[in-house]
Amino acid sequence: MKNIFSTFLWYVLFLPLVFTQKQTGFVCEMVNEKIIKIKYLSTNPDFQFLASDAVLLPAKGPCTLCQEEPDRVYIPSLDLTVISRPEGNGFITTLQEDEEIYGGGGRALPVNRRGYTFPLDNHPWYAYGYGADHLNFSVPFFISSKGYGLFFDNPSKGHADIGKTNKNIFDLRCSGGALELYIIIGDVSQVLSSYHALTGFQEMVPKWSMGLFLSRFGYTSEKNVKSVTRKMEKKGFPFDAVIFDLFWFGDSIKSTMGNLDWVNKKAWPDPEKMISGFMKKNRKTILITEPYVLTTSLEYKNAKPFLAKNINGESYQLPHFYFGKGGLLDIFRKDSKEWFLSKYQKQMDIGVAGWWGDLGEPESHPEDLYHNLSERGGPSLVPSSFVHNLYGHEWTKMLYQYYKENNPNYKLFNLNRAGFGGSQRFGIIPWTGDVSRSWDGLKAQVPLLCGMSLSGIPYIHSDAGGFAGGEKDPELYTRWFQFSVFTPILRPHGTAVYDIDPGAVSYPSEPALIGKEWESVLKKFSFLRYEMLPHNYNLSYKHYRFGYPLIAPMVYYFPGDTQVKGFENQFFWGSDILVAAVVEKGKITLNYIYLKPTNGTLFNLPILIKN
Q1: Whether 261 is catalytic
Q2: Are 115 and 100 spatial neighbours (Cβ–Cβ below 8 Å)?
Q3: Domain count within the chain
Q4: 100, 180, 330, 361: which one is catalytic?
Q5: Is residue 308, in this structure, part of any structural domain at all?
Q6: Other C-beta atoms within 10 Å of 304: how many?
Q7: Is the dihedral of CA 317, 321, 324, 330 positive or negative?
Q8: Residue 69: enclosing H or E segment and its boundaries?
Q9: Active site residue 71
Q10: Most CB within 10 Å of its CB: which of 57, 166, 173, 571?
């Protein structure tokens, strides 16, 4: 009788909902008075599963600001129309005549991205310069000068066409996954703050991480790194951390990835003692890791069960990977994470204080490689393209949650050059990738940093001095170092491999090694960084508390002011310091706009750098 009654109740109460529920088309809801969620219901199974966890706030009811039609949504207050793409794989919105669009992640493009088209695809670009449109950290979040923002909550490989093909159309498309678009109402600053409320604010970073780092590709032995630290000490340069690139787990660039331990006992006779020595001087040790395990590494046999699969469910072996043959850890599986984290814990036990996750796009991620998302309600074989932009995000989240559970009083420091919307709430500290060590590479940095900041990623910074190639130019290094003093992380980093790879252009990345005639100005700016530490740490608090950016382009504080257009090498460091970077060789003065910040502070970086 009980079963009969339950069946009757199901028919009476729930069956009508099944038949009346919308099977295809738009569903519009309000998250709050400033945020609209627009979802397109597709009959195609490839566009139904939501892999992303970017959004924190649930929708609360039908949209009161939308006019819904079968094939489109119109928002009168914004004069904005949203339609589904004819192919059913994204959204198209309208653009007004003089509308500007900012954001979209890491692009070495002007701050206003109107008139450009580019992939939504985390992608490494070695030795890039100004104009590179397809870099490591892609975020489908955009801010319009017309009082709204768009967040396309889809982490698959996609594309954005912002008025390039059709000047009146903003075209967003993806390769798979649920079709969900958030519209955020407000001016530039209000949209950015609401976006952080939607996807998360970043916690304050460790105070030591706002000092000066020593980092290069790379320190090859304890003797090598100590010779550099002694030179820094002898010349009176302050520094708070030393970062070790891939030579800590092997003595060659290729074939060693996946060792995840100090295997060369001649180069590293006692890592724990070395790290302890740094700690006694209040200096932290940071190690690089990658999610790839090569067949030639010590851990391949142990790691093989945790690698991503091919369509037959077998461990995938990468056919064309620069570093060697091997596989990619399936970071979406709990057992894979646990195996990976055991390697981290071993190094934490000897004093390692922070981490550098490299190649997290992932750098090699073939179309016929599959991930298992069954633990989050998805299929057990998901094509790599459907979750490509989510890999680095999941890696960052893995470390963040591990620290929260096992070391809750310790602030995680975690470099990773790839992620997605919401990665900021897991403490990601990204850099701008393998930039060319050139004036063109330096020119790319300010608009790139500003674009990332307006994409909701507050701790973006660059390899100060440049990373790849170059002409061994101390003036370039000095200019890059000067401007980097006013960025979230001051981390000079470049290729210095010398005997390991004689064909590469090697140049030191530490300020004490650049040359005597540059030493005084580099030391001056090094100490300026430490003098500004209270101000800079306050910026960290202001982001965490209110969502304010650390780096901001001119349009953030002066929206709609035509006077600030075209000043791509200027930015605000906080709300009170205006920085004008020098990005041309031989320049000692600049024509730049003299805006009056609230406390009157203006940093004029074009000083005579040799005086």
Answers
A1: no
A2: no
A3: 1
A4: 361
A5: yes
A6: 15
A7: negative
A8: strand 67-69
A9: no
A10: 571
Confidence band for 401, pLDDT divided at 50, 70 and 90: very high
Structural domain harbouring 272: 207-541
Q: Mapped to the 3 state alphabet, what secondary structure does 298-329 carry?
A: CCHHHHHHHECECCCCCECCCCCCCCCCEEEE
pLDDT digits (tens, 9 = 90+) for 135-172: 999 999 999 999 999 999 999 999 999 999 999 999 99
Is 434 catalytic? The answer is yes
Residue 67's beta-bridge partner residues? 74
* Domain-embedded: residue 57: no
Secondary structure class of 67 (helix, strand, coil): strand
Q: Point out the catalytic residue in the list 121, 330, 358, 568.
A: 358
pTM: 0.93
Backbone angles phi, psi at 70, to 5 degrees: -55, -35
Angular region, 480: left φ>0, alpha ψ -120 to 50, beta rest: alpha
Q: Is the pLDDT of residue 591 over 70?
A: no
Which residue, among 366, 370, 387, 378, has the nearest Cα to 156 in the 3D structure?
Answer: 387
Strand partners, 309: 315, 370
What gap in Å lies between CA 252 and CA 395, rounded to an integer?
A: 25
Of 394, 434, 473, 568, catalytic:
434
What single-letter DSSP state applies at residue 410?
A: S
CB–CB of 55/90 below 8 Å? no
User: For 24-75, what is each residue's pLDDT tens digit?
Assistant: 899 999 999 999 999 999 999 999 999 999 999 999 999 999 999 888 999 9
Query: Residue 557: helix, strand or coil by DSSP?
Result: helix
